[in-house]
Amino acid sequence: MRDATPEVHARGAELVVVGCGNRHFAQGFREALKLETPLYVDTERASYRALGMRRVSPLGFLTPKVMRNFWRALKAGFRQGRAQGNVWQLGGVLVVRPDGAVAFQYLSSEAGDHPPVADVLAALGS
Questions:
Q1: Contacting residues for 61 by C-beta, under 8 A, at least 6 apart
Q2: Distance CA 124, CA 126 (A)
Q3: Are the C-beta atoms of residues 111 and 56 closer than 8 Å to each other?
Q4: Alpha helix locations (H) across the chain?
Q5: Judging by DSSP bridges, how do beta strands 92-96 and 102-107 pair with one another?
């Protein structure tokens, strides 16, 4: 989604990242990912639980689909650095309208599971 930030902004929206690591590491995370959007930290993972985002066990990283996701990320140039926060926590993507209505929700089912960017942008409208 980070690469789609200009398109998100062109549609009058904002991309917001919520991480579960320690707030002291947020600046390094921002710099490593070259984030130019708001970044919040939820060390207690309350927002993750409220949204029903899942966690995986260590064995959850050994599925064929996760391995394919891993190789796809490597080929695209992504490298996992030192992890902060809960490494077992999965994420997701929400599009929330100004009135609080959720226009799009995608909860990851395993590591490397992300929605198609086109689906997220479509939920934003034009």
A1: 111
A2: 7
A3: yes
A4: 5-10, 26-33, 46-50, 64-75, 117-124
A5: antiparallel
Tokens 């398109």 identify what position?
Answer: 7
Question: Tokens 């260590």 map to which residue?
Answer: 58
CA 45, distance to chain mean position in Å, is 14
**Any idea where the domains of the chain sit in the sequence?**
2-124
Q: What's the whole-model pTM score?
A: 0.73
Is residue 82 helix, strand or coil?
coil
Check residue 25 and report its DSSP letter. Answer: G
Please give the class, per CATH, of domain 2-124.
Answer: alpha beta
Summarised one tens digit per residue, pLDDT across range 29-71 is: 888 888 889 999 999 999 999 999 988 866 666 667 666 766 6
